[in-house]
Amino acid sequence: MAAVVAATALKGRGARNARVLRGILAGATANKASHNRTRALQSHSSPEGKEEPEPLSPELEYIPRKRGKNPMKAVGLACPLCHQDVVSVGRLQIRALATPGHTQGHLVYLLDGEPYKGPSCLFSGDLLFLSGCGRTFEGNAETMLSSLDTVLGLGDDTLLWPGHEYAEENLGFAGVVEPENLARERKMQWVQRQRLERKGTCPSTLGEERSYNPFLRTHCLALQEALGPGPGPTGDDDYSRAQLLEELRRLKDMHKSK
Q1: Strand, helix or coil for residue 225
Q2: Is 202 buried (19+), middle (13-18) or exposed (0-12) by CB count in 10 A?
Q3: pLDDT tens across 181-212, in order?
Q4: Where would I find the Metallo-beta-lactamase domain in this sequence (predicted)?
Q5: CATH code (residue 203)
């Protein structure tokens, strides 16, 4: 799993941090893996009915999606991960964090950068995107807020590698709800330059996301006053933040449909 997760990050062409990850992977392959075989699911976007892709390494075994009514359920999964489980491959240490909300069993993965004297990497799946977050298909606003707070507890220099790249669209929406946010404006200009040069926009950092991602800014008074319902019936701050997150999600879905 570690190799699959790390290799996914290398899709950000030309990024300095992609070169860092290549160095991490090179260091891992120089050591004997602590697991002889690593099982991995096919990617989230793999088409149905296709032959299995070539493994990224001889140690990877792909488990195909289950055909039928629910193709997202895999068969033959031998070692499901739980919150705070750690997968070790050589010097790679990847910690699973339970982040329900998008789905009940959603996990994100934190690659520890300490052994390589570099930043840690968060592979956030469908929880957190550049200036956005996932929809709550199997959860509610309170659950999603708790999961977002889980990753907010990580360091500002943590690199964010999301499961999808919606940077320009998400930053456009962020400009609607926070039109005077200068950090968002600078990031939008950078993203547009990257696109013109046919370059990737990932990763960002959690420190950056705190400055312009509205779904991580439900604590901000300006957003609460503009969109939120006010304090909860008992003055519970998490109540008002969850209600604000729900309203942001509703507005984002409407913004996308325009």
Answers
A1: helix
A2: buried
A3: 999 999 999 999 999 999 999 999 999 999 99
A4: 4-164
A5: 3.60.15.10
61 pLDDT higher than 80: no
For 51-108, the DSSP string reads: PPPPPSSTTEEEEPBPPSS-TTSBS-------TT-EEEETTEEEEEEE-TTSSTT-EE
Query: Can you count the helices (H) and strands (E) in the chain?
Result: 8, 10
User: pLDDT tens across 208-255, in order?
Assistant: 999 999 999 999 988 888 886 665 555 666 668 999 999 999 999 998
Smallest CA-to-CA distance from 43 within 81, 84, 11, 85 is with 11
Find the distance separating the first CA and the last CA of the chain, reported in whole Å: 38
Domain count, the chain: 1
Tracing tokens 């996308």 back to the chain, one arrives at 256
Place of tokens 């006053």: 225
